[in-house]
Design brief:
Layout: E1 5-10, H1 18-31, E2 36-41, H2 43-50, H3 57-71, E3 78-82, H4 88-97, H5 102-106, H6 109-117, H7 126-129, H8 131-140, E4 146-149, H9 154-171, E5 179-182, H10 210-218, H11 239-247, H12 250-262, H13 267-293, H14 296-325
Parallel strand pairs: 1-2, 2-3, 4-5
Length: 331
């Protein structure tokens, strides 16, 4: 390979929002010119927590694909595919499960955290416990050199490195140890001040209309100290200002910050600046979304071609895996 290989995926567990845009898609677009990139829609992963109701899965998969393309991913530069169309992921998952100690999966931080946080679904399943193992198979099967992660996600990558190392110790060198491509993922707050999440119903979705985006920003919570227009506030207490830090220029940030502290501007004025800047970013995405949504055959061609290419790479790895284990030939 002339370029180092990058692997990353995104779950189709709901519609994508502006947090997904700045936390993943924009970074994927930057990486596609420098690395050999494999980006997948992790539809099997969505089933680990949403297995009981798959009625929207197809729509969410399409939403992910459309937004990837609308954000600037180029199928000529990056391989974009669906996890479930490369069945070798499942085969490697099974084989890795034979050598992975149960305690390794139980110690993954999100396993216990999600069981406490998520109250409306039963997560006491092997699929949820084995999520990190399937994730490891996703990465290792492409012998990826790098995985884009934030610092807080490094424990998830480390278990992949450990599993690959354990497999290599048993059967010989097959998998390189993937490294984290450390990326600064900004925390994107939702309309209620908490982290933007589909769980909290506080998202600005990439599929929202201009009217919906404007309405959501206009009704966002701000600094609770500013009850009246003449009240002085603290911009750091306002979720709107935290979005300014991501979507507005430094000069605009300074202007709305000073205006908030001195009561020189009202919260509506502050929000108008943010709405303008969001529209600047989202309008090209909306235009491209409209283009692709009118061409479902083109979407199918893209995901089919990407999945075919991904499967070729995965098949090559699995040939080697079966060979070292002793499963490739019985003669």
């Amino acid at each position: 390979m002339s370029k180092k290989r990058v692997l990353s995926g995104i779950q189709p567990s709901g519609k994508l929002h502006i947090g997904n845009l700045v936390g993943a898609l924009q970074n994927w677009v930057r990486l596609q010119d420098e690395y050999e990139c494999y980006y997948f829609i992790a539809d099997w992963h969505a089933l680990t927590s949403q297995y009981a109701d798959t009625s929207m899965l197809k729509d969410y998969v399409q939403d992910v694909l459309v937004n990837c393309l609308a954000a600037g991913l180029d199928p000529e530069k990056a391989t974009i595919f669906a996890q479930s169309r490369v069945i070798e992921h499942a085969e490697l998952h099974v084989l890795l499960s034979m050598v992975t100690p149960l305690s390794w999966l139980e110690r993954v931080p999100t396993f216990k955290e999600k069981q406490v946080e998520v109250k409306d679904r039963d997560l006491n399943t092997y699929g949820f416990l084995g999520y990190p193992l399937l994730q490891s198979a996703d990465i290792l099967i492409y012998r990826a050199h790098y995985v884009p992660v934030g610092v807080d996600q490094m424990p998830h990558l480390e278990i992949t490195r450990e599993i690959g190392r354990r497999f290599n110790n048993f059967y010989g060198e097959v998998f390189p140890e993937p490294e984290g491509l450390l990326t600064q993922f900004p925390k994107v707050v939702g309309t209620d001040g908490r982290k933007m999440s589909k769980t909290y119903d506080n998202c600005v979705f990439l599929s929202d209309s201009p009217k919906e985006v404007e309405q959501k920003i206009r009704t966002m919570t701000t600094d609770p100290q500013r009850i009246k227009r003449t009240d002085k506030g603290d911009p750091e207490l306002s979720p709107v200002f935290h979005l300014h830090k991501i979507f507005s220029s430094k000069a605009e940030q300074d202007e709305v910050s000073e205006g908030c502290r001195t009561a020189g501007i009202g919260c509506i004025d502050c929000k108008k600046v943010l709405i303008k800047n969001l529209f600047t970013i989202l309008e090209p995405i909306w235009e491209k979304r409209e283009h692709y949504l009118k061409k479902p055959d083109e979407l199918e061609d893209i995901i089919t071609a990407g999945s075919k290419k991904a499967r070729e790479a995965a098949t090559e790895t699995m040939h080697r895996v079966r060979e070292v284990i002793g499963l490739e030939s019985l003669i």
